[in-house]
Amino acid sequence: MNLSKRPQQILLAILFLNLVSTWLHYTDNALFLSQYPGPDWFTPVGIVVTVIVMTPIGLLGYWLYARSSFWLAYLFLGTYSITSISSPGHYFFPMVTPMSLKMHGLIWLDAVSGLSLIGFLWWSFAIAQEWRTGEVSD
Fold first, then answer.
1. Of the candidates 13, 12, 22, 87, the residue with the CA atom closest to the CA atom of residue 52
2. Model pTM?
3. What are the C-alpha distances in Å from 98 to residues 24, 30, 47, 93?
4. Which of 52, 109, 111, 117 is most deeply packed, by most CB within 10 A?
């Protein structure tokens, strides 16, 4: 295994987890919107458009990271992480009907995957300081 590519491979795995969890949660949210607590202005179309717009932002962030454009990668990946870390926001709204175990699971899977992405970004920025070298290192 090429150790210089290890952080890039870890980021790819974390991003993949984020993409899967976000698509699962947002799809379920759009299909069962009336069962999820949230603001009145949420619509199924708006939810689907959000995930369609945000997905390329996350992928572009990975592409930038792989090319050692760390500052832009941090910006794009940090922006993309909002799709995941905002999922527990459902709990700030009154429940119309009790949420299923599946719904709770999707919310928390999405949140944890988003936190793992933020954790990786923090590691890359503050601990490994990859932005200083301009090269991906472990």
1. 22
2. 0.88
3. 19, 17, 21, 12
4. 117
Two tokens, residue 18: 């984020």
Residue 102: give the domain boundaries.
Answer: 3-133
Number of domains in the chain: 1
Q: Is residue 138 part of a domain?
A: no
* Nearest CA-CA partner of 64 in 137, 11, 28, 1: 11
3-class secondary structure, 104:
helix
Closest CA to 78 of 115, 35, 40: 115
- Residues whose CB falls within 8 Å of the CB of residue 136, separated by 6 or more in sequence, listed in order: 4, 5, 7, 8, 65, 66, 68, 130
